[in-house]
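EI: anyone free to look at a 253-residue chain?
SC: sure, send it
EI:
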Amino acid sequence: MTMLDDGMPGVEPAGAEEAAAGASAVARSRSHRRRWIAAGTVAALIIAGVMAFTIFEPIQVLPRIRLAPGFALIDQTGATVTSEDLRGSVVLYTFTYDSCEEPCAAPEPTMAEIVERIGEVDLGETEMRFLTLSFDPARDDSAALAARAARFGADGDTWTYATAVDEGQLSNIIGSGFKTWYEDRGDGTFSFDPTLVLVDGWGIIRGEYRYQTLADDADRILRHIGILGEELRNSHGPNSLAYEAAHFFLCYP
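SC: here you go
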Protein backbone atom coordinates (compact mmCIF):
# COMPACT_ATOMS: atom_id res chain seq x y z
CA MET A 1 0.00 0.00 0.00
CA THR A 2 1.31 3.47 -0.90
CA MET A 3 0.05 6.96 -0.01
CA LEU A 4 -0.90 9.46 -2.70
CA ASP A 5 0.25 13.07 -2.56
CA ASP A 6 -3.15 14.15 -1.21
CA GLY A 7 -2.87 11.69 1.71
CA MET A 8 -5.27 9.19 0.23
CA PRO A 9 -4.14 5.56 0.18
CA GLY A 10 -3.14 4.13 -3.14
CA VAL A 11 -2.52 0.66 -4.52
CA GLU A 12 1.00 -0.72 -5.03
CA PRO A 13 1.82 -1.89 -8.46
CA ALA A 14 1.20 -5.64 -8.79
CA GLY A 15 4.78 -6.25 -9.86
CA ALA A 16 6.24 -4.96 -6.58
CA GLU A 17 4.88 -7.83 -4.47
CA GLU A 18 6.02 -10.36 -7.03
CA ALA A 19 9.49 -8.81 -7.06
CA ALA A 20 9.71 -8.95 -3.25
CA ALA A 21 8.59 -12.58 -3.22
CA GLY A 22 11.10 -13.43 -5.92
CA ALA A 23 13.92 -11.75 -4.02
CA SER A 24 13.00 -13.69 -0.90
CA ALA A 25 12.98 -16.97 -2.83
CA VAL A 26 16.39 -16.18 -4.31
CA ALA A 27 17.76 -15.42 -0.86
CA ARG A 28 16.41 -18.71 0.50
CA SER A 29 17.86 -20.60 -2.45
CA ARG A 30 21.26 -19.01 -1.91
CA SER A 31 21.13 -19.85 1.80
CA HIS A 32 20.28 -23.49 1.04
CA ARG A 33 23.04 -23.60 -1.54
CA ARG A 34 25.59 -22.26 0.94
CA ARG A 35 24.53 -24.86 3.52
CA TRP A 36 24.84 -27.66 0.97
CA ILE A 37 28.25 -26.38 -0.12
CA ALA A 38 29.40 -26.22 3.51
CA ALA A 39 28.09 -29.73 4.21
CA GLY A 40 29.74 -31.03 1.04
CA THR A 41 33.03 -29.39 1.98
CA VAL A 42 32.95 -30.95 5.45
CA ALA A 43 32.11 -34.37 3.98
CA ALA A 44 34.92 -34.03 1.44
CA LEU A 45 37.38 -33.11 4.18
CA ILE A 46 36.27 -36.10 6.26
CA ILE A 47 36.61 -38.46 3.30
CA ALA A 48 40.01 -36.99 2.43
CA GLY A 49 41.10 -37.38 6.04
CA VAL A 50 39.93 -40.99 6.14
CA MET A 51 41.72 -41.77 2.86
CA ALA A 52 44.90 -40.08 4.07
CA PHE A 53 44.74 -41.96 7.39
CA THR A 54 44.20 -45.25 5.58
CA ILE A 55 46.87 -44.69 2.92
CA PHE A 56 49.63 -43.01 4.91
CA GLU A 57 48.88 -44.70 8.29
CA PRO A 58 50.33 -41.96 10.53
CA ILE A 59 49.71 -44.30 13.47
CA GLN A 60 50.22 -48.06 13.38
CA VAL A 61 48.78 -50.50 15.89
CA LEU A 62 48.85 -54.24 16.45
CA PRO A 63 45.55 -56.05 15.93
CA ARG A 64 43.41 -57.06 18.89
CA ILE A 65 43.16 -60.72 17.96
CA ARG A 66 41.33 -62.33 20.89
CA LEU A 67 41.58 -62.85 24.64
CA ALA A 68 44.47 -65.00 25.85
CA PRO A 69 43.51 -67.98 28.03
CA GLY A 70 43.58 -67.86 31.80
CA PHE A 71 45.83 -70.34 33.58
CA ALA A 72 47.54 -71.49 36.77
CA LEU A 73 50.96 -73.07 36.16
CA ILE A 74 53.95 -74.41 38.09
CA ASP A 75 57.25 -72.70 37.27
CA GLN A 76 60.85 -73.92 37.42
CA THR A 77 61.09 -73.09 41.13
CA GLY A 78 57.92 -75.00 42.01
CA ALA A 79 55.95 -71.79 42.58
CA THR A 80 52.54 -71.12 41.08
CA VAL A 81 52.29 -68.54 38.32
CA THR A 82 48.89 -67.43 37.01
CA SER A 83 47.61 -65.29 34.18
CA GLU A 84 46.49 -62.77 36.79
CA ASP A 85 50.08 -62.50 38.07
CA LEU A 86 51.04 -61.33 34.58
CA ARG A 87 48.15 -58.91 34.19
CA GLY A 88 49.44 -55.43 33.43
CA SER A 89 52.63 -56.74 31.79
CA VAL A 90 53.29 -57.33 28.12
CA VAL A 91 54.11 -61.04 27.81
CA LEU A 92 55.74 -63.04 25.03
CA TYR A 93 54.89 -66.75 25.13
CA THR A 94 56.48 -69.73 23.46
CA PHE A 95 55.97 -73.50 23.75
CA THR A 96 58.34 -76.46 23.91
CA TYR A 97 59.31 -79.58 25.88
CA ASP A 98 62.62 -80.46 27.50
CA SER A 99 63.25 -83.68 25.55
CA CYS A 100 63.09 -81.84 22.24
CA GLU A 101 66.13 -83.11 20.32
CA GLU A 102 68.45 -80.66 18.63
CA PRO A 103 67.96 -79.02 16.30
CA CYS A 104 64.73 -78.35 18.21
CA ALA A 105 62.04 -76.45 16.33
CA ALA A 106 61.06 -74.44 19.42
CA PRO A 107 61.94 -70.75 18.96
CA GLU A 108 63.75 -70.42 22.29
CA PRO A 109 66.88 -68.96 20.65
CA THR A 110 64.65 -66.24 19.17
CA MET A 111 63.13 -65.67 22.61
CA ALA A 112 66.63 -65.44 24.14
CA GLU A 113 67.65 -62.85 21.54
CA ILE A 114 64.55 -60.77 22.23
CA VAL A 115 65.20 -60.93 25.99
CA GLU A 116 68.75 -59.74 25.34
CA ARG A 117 67.62 -56.87 23.10
CA ILE A 118 64.41 -55.79 24.82
CA GLY A 119 66.12 -52.59 25.97
CA GLU A 120 65.94 -51.42 22.34
CA VAL A 121 62.20 -50.73 22.69
CA ASP A 122 60.37 -48.30 24.96
CA LEU A 123 57.41 -49.71 26.85
CA GLY A 124 57.26 -46.78 29.24
CA GLU A 125 56.29 -47.98 32.69
CA THR A 126 54.88 -51.29 31.44
CA GLU A 127 56.86 -54.38 32.40
CA MET A 128 57.93 -56.93 29.79
CA ARG A 129 57.76 -60.62 30.74
CA PHE A 130 58.56 -63.86 28.92
CA LEU A 131 57.05 -67.28 29.53
CA THR A 132 57.97 -70.62 27.95
CA LEU A 133 55.32 -73.26 28.49
CA SER A 134 56.10 -76.98 28.34
CA PHE A 135 53.45 -79.31 26.96
CA ASP A 136 55.13 -82.40 28.50
CA PRO A 137 54.18 -82.24 32.20
CA ALA A 138 54.82 -85.98 32.72
CA ARG A 139 58.58 -85.46 32.24
CA ASP A 140 59.10 -81.73 32.67
CA ASP A 141 59.00 -81.28 36.43
CA SER A 142 60.44 -78.21 38.13
CA ALA A 143 63.99 -79.62 38.06
CA ALA A 144 63.85 -80.32 34.32
CA LEU A 145 62.38 -76.87 33.66
CA ALA A 146 65.07 -75.23 35.79
CA ALA A 147 67.81 -77.02 33.84
CA ARG A 148 66.34 -75.96 30.49
CA ALA A 149 65.82 -72.41 31.72
CA ALA A 150 69.48 -72.23 32.77
CA ARG A 151 70.52 -73.49 29.32
CA PHE A 152 68.85 -70.50 27.66
CA GLY A 153 69.60 -67.94 30.36
CA ALA A 154 66.05 -67.62 31.70
CA ASP A 155 66.30 -66.03 35.15
CA GLY A 156 62.89 -67.14 36.45
CA ASP A 157 61.85 -63.53 36.96
CA THR A 158 61.79 -61.79 33.58
CA TRP A 159 61.78 -65.10 31.71
CA THR A 160 59.92 -68.02 33.29
CA TYR A 161 59.61 -71.69 32.35
CA ALA A 162 56.42 -73.40 33.47
CA THR A 163 53.99 -76.24 32.88
CA ALA A 164 50.65 -77.46 34.22
CA VAL A 165 49.95 -80.54 36.33
CA ASP A 166 47.07 -81.72 34.17
CA GLU A 167 47.57 -82.55 30.48
CA GLY A 168 43.94 -81.71 29.72
CA GLN A 169 44.46 -78.26 31.18
CA LEU A 170 47.51 -77.78 28.96
CA SER A 171 45.50 -78.78 25.92
CA ASN A 172 42.93 -76.11 26.75
CA ILE A 173 45.58 -73.46 27.39
CA ILE A 174 47.88 -74.13 24.46
CA GLY A 175 45.58 -75.70 21.89
CA SER A 176 42.27 -73.96 22.48
CA GLY A 177 43.51 -70.71 24.04
CA PHE A 178 46.73 -69.92 22.17
CA LYS A 179 45.63 -71.84 19.02
CA THR A 180 48.99 -73.63 18.90
CA TRP A 181 49.06 -77.19 17.63
CA TYR A 182 51.05 -79.97 19.28
CA GLU A 183 50.72 -83.74 19.33
CA ASP A 184 52.26 -86.50 21.42
CA ARG A 185 53.87 -89.06 19.10
CA GLY A 186 53.73 -91.68 21.85
CA ASP A 187 57.49 -92.25 21.94
CA GLY A 188 58.44 -89.38 24.25
CA THR A 189 58.57 -86.83 21.42
CA PHE A 190 56.08 -84.29 20.12
CA SER A 191 55.14 -82.74 16.81
CA PHE A 192 54.33 -79.06 17.21
CA ASP A 193 54.16 -75.69 15.51
CA PRO A 194 57.01 -73.38 16.56
CA THR A 195 55.07 -70.39 17.83
CA LEU A 196 55.51 -67.15 19.72
CA VAL A 197 52.47 -65.22 20.98
CA LEU A 198 52.47 -61.58 22.14
CA VAL A 199 49.88 -60.59 24.78
CA ASP A 200 49.25 -57.08 26.12
CA GLY A 201 48.59 -56.07 29.72
CA TRP A 202 44.82 -56.48 29.32
CA GLY A 203 45.28 -60.13 28.37
CA ILE A 204 44.57 -59.58 24.67
CA ILE A 205 46.64 -61.41 22.05
CA ARG A 206 48.28 -58.81 19.80
CA GLY A 207 50.68 -60.92 17.74
CA GLU A 208 51.08 -64.53 16.60
CA TYR A 209 54.35 -65.61 14.97
CA ARG A 210 54.19 -69.09 13.46
CA TYR A 211 56.32 -69.00 10.33
CA GLN A 212 59.73 -67.74 9.38
CA THR A 213 59.46 -64.54 7.38
CA LEU A 214 61.94 -62.69 5.19
CA ALA A 215 62.63 -60.40 8.14
CA ASP A 216 64.44 -61.96 11.07
CA ASP A 217 61.84 -63.08 13.62
CA ALA A 218 63.57 -61.30 16.52
CA ASP A 219 63.74 -58.02 14.57
CA ARG A 220 60.10 -58.31 13.53
CA ILE A 221 58.82 -59.09 17.01
CA LEU A 222 60.91 -56.35 18.60
CA ARG A 223 59.48 -53.88 16.09
CA HIS A 224 55.96 -55.02 16.98
CA ILE A 225 56.67 -54.71 20.71
CA GLY A 226 57.86 -51.17 19.99
CA ILE A 227 54.59 -50.38 18.16
CA LEU A 228 52.65 -51.74 21.13
CA GLY A 229 54.81 -49.65 23.46
CA GLU A 230 53.96 -46.48 21.52
CA GLU A 231 50.27 -47.24 21.88
CA LEU A 232 50.62 -47.92 25.60
CA ARG A 233 52.52 -44.66 26.14
CA ASN A 234 50.49 -42.37 23.90
CA SER A 235 46.87 -43.59 23.69
CA HIS A 236 45.55 -41.36 26.46
CA GLY A 237 43.16 -38.39 26.41
CA PRO A 238 42.41 -37.00 22.93
CA ASN A 239 45.11 -39.24 21.42
CA SER A 240 43.01 -42.28 22.26
CA LEU A 241 40.63 -41.33 19.43
CA ALA A 242 43.45 -41.45 16.90
CA TYR A 243 44.51 -44.89 18.12
CA GLU A 244 40.94 -46.18 18.00
CA ALA A 245 40.75 -44.85 14.42
CA ALA A 246 43.96 -46.75 13.62
CA HIS A 247 42.32 -49.93 14.92
CA PHE A 248 39.11 -49.18 12.98
CA PHE A 249 40.99 -48.66 9.71
CA LEU A 250 43.23 -51.69 10.32
CA CYS A 251 46.46 -49.72 10.32
CA TYR A 252 48.57 -52.80 11.03
CA PRO A 253 52.25 -53.30 10.25
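EI: The helical segments are 14-56, 108-117, 142-152, 167-177, 217-234, 239-248.
SC: 👍
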